[in-house]
Amino acid sequence: MTQKTPVRKAPRIQSLDSDPRDPRVVRVVLAGQTRAVAQLPRESLTELRLAEGLAWTAAVARRVAAFTAHRKTRELSLKCLAQRSHNATTLGAALSRRGVDEGVVARVLAELVKDGWLNDERHAESRALSLGRRHPGISADAAAALLESDGVDAPRAWTHAKRIARDEALCAVALARAVTALRGRGSRHPLAVAASLARRGIDRTIIERALRQEGIDAEE
């Protein structure tokens, strides 16, 4: 006669007590154990349908694990957004580099877009302003390339690149720097200085203005 393998019963939740370090957090402890199997925000208990005495089945464990992964990913996302501007592309890449599951990333990104935390136009404008401050006088082509490398889509990158390339205040700063570089060139040929300025991304027209201002023939 074949002996049946006894079915192992799922342990039950013994307690849902507040964490002594943070009363907003609940420690989920199973019967016969002392260590918590999960630590959750108290307000999540209703959503997760958890209560003392509930069987900790595989389905319940998966439900809690999915909630925890989503919560941690959202918290990490908001931390990233507090540090610098992101759009869905750049934030998604940052989360993926940290090993976050693709499905969780997709759900959190969609949620952040819906909530207004992620906005492609706002990100493009923020990155363009930062780029302009770091590289005054940058050419539109160079600016667009850098913005695209920062996750800005091509049409927005070009629009904002042209805007910062035409900014009069930024162009004035770049002109002053170019003139200073030419005046302090020492024995270097002025066109070598001009080439160095161009490699730094400064617009050709600004460099030519600096050369003319210093009485240097750009064709010499």
Architecture blueprint of SSEs:
Blueprint: E1 13-19, E2 22-30, E3 36-41, H1 44-48, H2 58-83, H3 88-97, H4 102-115, H5 120-134, H6 140-149, H7 154-165, H8 168-183, H9 190-199, H10 204-213
Antiparallel strand pairs: 1-2, 2-3
Helix pairs in contact: 2-4, 3-4, 5-7, 6-7, 8-10, 9-10
Q: What tags apply to this protein structure?
A:
10 helices; 10% strand; mainly alpha; 220 residues; three-stranded antiparallel β-sheet; 3 domains; Arc Repressor Mutant, subunit A; single chain
Radius of gyration: 29 Å
Biggest sheet strand line-up: 1-2-3
Helix content: 55-70%
Query: What is the mean pLDDT?
Result: 91
Describe this structure in words.
- This protein is mainly α and 220 residues long.
- The protein has 3 domains: 10-56, no CATH class; 67-118, Arc Repressor Mutant, subunit A (Orthogonal Bundle), CATH 1.10.10; 119-220, no CATH class.
- 58% of the residues lie in helices and 10% in strands.
- It has 10 helices and 3 strands, in the order E-E-E-H-H-H-H-H-H-H-H-H-H.
- It has helices at 44-48, 58-83, 88-97, 102-115, 120-134, 140-149, 154-165, 168-183, 190-199, 204-213, and strands spanning 13-19, 22-30, 36-41.
- Strands 1-2-3 form a 3-stranded antiparallel β-sheet.
- The protein is rod-shaped and about 100 Å long.
